[in-house]
Amino acid sequence: MATTHTIKGTIYDQFNNLMPKHSVEIYDQDLRQVQLLGTTETNAIGEYQLAFDSKKALRADIKSIDCLLYTSDAADDS
């Protein structure tokens, strides 16, 4: 049976300002590959939350998840 994990936090810029309405991509970083766990968007006060199934990230030989997070302006077309 799979377990649901939740990753949550608040995104700030380099000047410690909250970053509302930004897209967030969260990946599982293994030795040889990077796997997307999911995407979400920060709310009006820069908070995000992403729930994912452990089967999506955990392999039989790996017992932990090493997260890698990317963020960008949600209005950014690139």
Textual characterization of the structure:
With 78 residues, the protein is mainly beta. Helix content is 5%, strand content 47%. Strands 3-2-5 form a 3-stranded antiparallel sheet, with no helix packed on it. A two-stranded antiparallel ribbon has the order 1-4.
Précis, in short:
Helix content is 5%, strand content 47%. The protein is mostly beta strands. Strands 3-2-5 form a three-stranded antiparallel beta sheet, with no helix packed on it.
N-to-C SSE string, H for helix and E for strand: EEEEHE
Our measurement of the CA-to-CA distance between the termini, rounded to an integer number of angstroms, reads 38 Å
Given helix and strand content, the structural type is mainly beta
Helix content bin: under 10%
Mean pLDDT: 83
Rg, nearest Å? 14 Å
* Oligomeric composition of the shown chains: single chain
Number of strands: 5
Helix count, per DSSP?
A: 1
Largest sheet: 3 strands, antiparallel
Q: Could you give the order of strands across the largest sheet?
A: 3-2-5
Query: Which stretches of 5+ consecutive residues score pLDDT under 50?
Result: none
Shape: elongated
Q: Strand fraction band? A: over 45%
